[in-house]
Amino acid sequence: MTKFLRQLHRVWYLFWILFFFALFYPIYYLSASNPKYYGILNFFRKANSFLCSLFSGVFFSYKFEEPLNNKQTYIYCANHTSNLDIMIFCILAKGRYHFMGKDELLNNPVLGIFFKTIDISVNRDSKISAFRAFKKAGENLEKGMSLIIFPEGKIDDHYPPKLGEFKNGPFRLAIEKNIPLVAVSITNVWKINWDDGAKYGSKPGICDIYVHKPIETKTLTDLDSDILKEKVFKLIESKLV
User: Fold this and answer.
1) Which of 36, 179, 201, 224 is deepest in the core (most CB within 10 A)?
2) CB atoms within 10 A of CB 147
3) What is the tens place of the pLDDT at every residue in 65-122?
């Protein structure tokens, strides 16, 4: 019975995602056509995420180690266990922000419009694709667009999920561009909805998110990227349950 109810909730949750995406699609289409409208695009991504979570009974509780500066450009790094992680950051991030994700998302019926415009897709098996993706991300950071990235590169196949090895890219980029890096621990979202929910379904509940104090990178060099990566890994892992 529990399995049935969780699958039923997943259908309910997906319905609201598609409903609000269709409702906002004309705005997405128009605002995605020109970078100067990306602020508007992100505002409606935030609204879309909030409304979907509200109507599906999934809520996000954020705990900040230190208040973030709404005018500061950041690189956000978090563990990745659920499709809900996208909503979590659409609500958390302020102003002009963009995601970096796998190139399969270009064909996603909902996320495709974003990864063909504001967001950046990357082929995880191609060094050339990764180089181009991080070059583009660097250019966006210089324009004041915060970057949201999941340094594991994918959702772990293991259930319950374990924190996987981090890729080097975001840490080198943070140092190169002198951008503060924000580690985010998404602690229990996998219990609400793991991966896309296909296997275990989903359920209403509260997702706890711990936002660590920003790490300044101005005094770091390229030689410090591995140290930074390890530091962020330990910070994120310290709050996982």
Assistant:
1) 179
2) 27
3) 999 999 999 999 999 999 999 999 999 998 889 999 999 999 999 999 999 999 999 9
